[in-house]
Amino acid sequence: MTQICQKVVVKGMVQGVGFRYHTCHEGLKLGLIGYAKNLYDGSVEVVACGDQAKVEALCEWLMQGPRTATVDSVTKEPCEQSTVYSGFKIL
């Protein structure tokens, strides 16, 4: 099992619609660690760390998001796990 960290920025109608809550739920369900937080430009930043296949599964889910959201674009980039996360948090 390859462990990776991925930073994802999701743009669209993703604030005020429970996006972070649902992302946190999906991350925990997949056994990942990391966070979801709102950015000032109206997008949501997600950092997910764990098994590569599970991180990729969360990234796939983020392309749709919850039914309440409208995702316009998703950008991904690898990142270092510089912070030790415990669980999946909403920031």
From TrEMBL:
Domain Acylphosphatase-like, first and last residues per copy: 5-91
Catalytic machinery residues: 20, 38
Keywords per UniProt: Hydrolase
Highest taxon in the source lineage: Bacteria
Entry's family note: Belongs to the acylphosphatase family.
PANTHER family linked: ACYLPHOSPHATASE (PTHR47268)
Protein name: Acylphosphatase
Organism: Vibrio barjaei
Gene behind this protein: yccX
